Automatic annotation (TrEMBL):
Keywords: Amino-acid transport, ATP-binding, Nucleotide-binding, Transport. SMART domains: AAA (SM00382). One of its GO terms (molecular function) is ATP binding. This is Urea ABC transporter ATP-binding subunit UrtE.
Amino acid sequence: MATLAIDSIDLYYGAAQALRGVSLTAETGKVTSVLGRNGVGKTSLLRAIMGVQPVARGAISWDGRDLGGLAPYDRARRGIAYVPQGREIFPLLTVRENLETGFSPLPRGQRFVPDEIYDLFPVLKDMLNRRGGDLSGGQQQQLAIARALVTRPSLLVLDEPTEGIQPSIIKEIGRAIAYLRGKGDMAIVLVEQYFEWARDLCDSYAVMDRGQVVLAGDKAHMVEADVRRHLSV
Ligand SMILES: Nc1ncnc2c1ncn2[C@@H]1O[C@H](COP(=O)(O)OP(=O)(O)OP(=O)(O)O)[C@@H](O)[C@H]1O
């Protein structure tokens, strides 16, 4: 079992501090939900995990190895995959080509799309030759998750996968996350604003407010009113 250990990180954009002493852990076989309003630093936390934004202080390790100084590409090779906010599908590439962009961190023998991915998101199999830009928002979200899964991650981080998605597809995505959790070989960090959905899927949670983690713990000890206080505007 591997652990993502984030220890007291600070992150700045120029002079503006977006993260203040943020600590978080996530473990294999578990979903860790990170909740919070717009602009409290959730995406910045994920950028720090992926190495797309440097941290000024603190440390991040995955599976006992410090990620400090590693480029995003090297983190992907260590099994960390990212489903960005807004999905970032390549609109002019086909669904198949979008999936194949996930091959780059893989050794040659693993450069194929596992059937399991089409079992999770059958719509993608029917649309392999369609352009990414022609898919609905929900289909693009499924494609973004599938593309991340193509890299065979051991740590999957998702940034607001329900944002702007219709309820039936939110359910499908929830089922996929629950399935991946149940397989027991992946740690999942789920950034969300949709409280009930993130609560139902998670084992542990953290709530962020103004760049800090203000509440965290196991789901069993989650007090809804306390969490909601930090989610309402
Ligand atoms: N590239 C950037 N340059 C300057 N400031 C930024 C940049 N990206 C984010 N910020 C600021 O950092 C703070 C945290 O933003 P962040 O995107 O991490 O929050 P968030 O909780 O993910 O919000 P959202 O749900 O809207 O994505 C905000 O005040 C935001 O304005």
